Amino acid sequence: MNIDLNLLPLFLAVAEEHSFTAAAARLGITRSAVSQGIRRLEDAFGTLLVMRTTRSVNLTEAGERLYQSLSLPLSSIESAFEEVTADSTPRGRLRIAVTSIAEEFLSGPLLASFAAAHPAVSLDIVVTDEEFDIVAAGYDAGVRLGEVIEKDMIAVPLAGQQREMVVASPAYLATNSKPAHPRELVGHRCIGWRSSPNVAPYRWEFEEAGIPFDVAIEPQITTNDLRLMLRLALAGGGITFATQETFRPFIETGELVSLLDEFLPHFPGFYLYFPQRHNMAPKLRALIEHVRRWQQRFT
Questions:
Q1: How much is the pTM?
Q2: For the chain, where are the alpha helices, taking DSSP H only?
Q3: Which domains does the chain have, with CATH numbers?
């Protein structure tokens, strides 16, 4: 393996500073020299060592192994280099941050089929609705609605367009009139969602004559658990609001009734997103290819 050992101090500076700018200042060189040096080192290993965005810098799993190996005796470093060098087999831990409303991704079959096809990859999936920098937090990828993904990320669609639905059970509607307009929801018992206790409940979004608007409902029950919202609606607890994948099976069986359909337009759906393509780890590339094959079912 032809590794320029002069690049290792540069890598160490980036690993310890978590910043190309700070590493450049520490070494007395330009930020561009740091960036080019890391790219040359990654090309030599054939794998991504440093995840970087416009907001943060963090080591990949391979970068962490290299960083740890540099504390070994010199006699062990060459063998450690061989371990860092990527082969074509997807392996290692793949960390993914997924929004709780990504029903298609979290439903089971997509992830189960990926795990079966790639037994050397261990999936570490955190379901969270908090907004944060996945690179700074040490994740390989995330799943969110396309409209809220940062512009410097690469995004792969998981399915087709999405649509919100307003639903209630037949039992609830037997004793309460159907709302004819979204603004009538304020007079109904509603089940709302919010991402965390310190934020206001999500405002339900609609469209009329091509003009978007939202309704600030006053939910009698508020939760951050989509499954609880579903269970409460099925139990006649009130009207609730979420993406169509959550409710479709229960609409089809008649356990829930769809309301206000004419006010609910389609919008871009969920995406798997990640920072960059160059020298991508095989484990992440395998997941992207799996998602693309999965998405082809909708096209």
A1: 0.63
A2: 8-17, 20-27, 31-45, 61-69, 74-84, 103-106, 109-117, 170-175, 226-234, 244-253, 282-295
A3: 5-84 (1.10.10.10), 92-160+269-298 (3.40.190.10), 162-267 (3.40.190.10)
